[in-house]
Design brief:
The protein is of the alpha/beta class. It folds into two domains: 1-33; 42-198, Rossmann fold (3-Layer(aba) Sandwich). The chain has seven helices and seven strands; from the N terminus they run ααβαββααβαβαββ. It has helices at residues 7-32, 36-39, 61-76, 104-116, 126-133, 153-158, 179-189, and strands at 46-52, 82-88, 92-94, 140-145, 167-172, 194-199, 203-208. A hairpin with a 3-residue loop joins β6 and β7 (203-208). α3 (61-76) packs antiparallel against α4 (104-116). The protein is globular. It starts with 6 loop residues before the first helix and ends with a strand. Pfam families: VWA_3. Residues 46-209 form the VWFA domain. InterPro entries: VWF_A (IPR002035), vWFA_dom_sf (IPR036465). This is von Willebrand factor A domain-containing protein 3B-like.
Length: 209
Amino acid sequence: MHVHVTNDIYRDYQSRLNVVMDRIINRLNWLKETSYYYFGRIIESRIFILVDISLSMKEYMKNVYKLLFRVLNEQILNSGKSFNIIAFNTEYHIWRNNFTFPTPGEIKLSLNWLKSIEIGGSTNIIPPLTNAIYNNATETVFLLSDGRSNESVDEILSSLSGRHNLRINTISFNMDNSPPNRLLYELSFKTSGVCATFVLQNHSRTLRV
């Protein structure tokens, strides 16, 4: 079958295609400035956010604070959702004993609390993760880390026994395909979560599984 395309038809098609591509590019640029680009659309009601504050994360912490500010204001505030935060390195610290419904004041307090904790030490993921997943109220977990954990992915997955239905979403602050990045990808993949990678200079790769 042959289709004859005149110059006028071709130019019209090209013009329409350019309009569509411009809309897609504008949409992607908008998404990069929102929490949806990294967190996706959060549909769960009770969200546990785990933040790696080990020494290797030091250069990324300003970006971590900005991402948390965005997601709490864009997707949690005035949504009926509640949240809690665990900051961890060698040890871990919990923001509240229970999930909190956000207000502008609570969001500010939570970020100030996070900023007040000294950055340093190494990364132990299992203790804060098990604390989050064995809270029966938890519906989803977001883990922000560079993946430089003292534990292997198999050890971490073994600690999840009994809560295999809980999605663990990871945001990797690691700009290469090193084993730490793979650890975070495997952790999200094997729990049907989402793995996104944050890199500097407003560019990232996102893997959805």
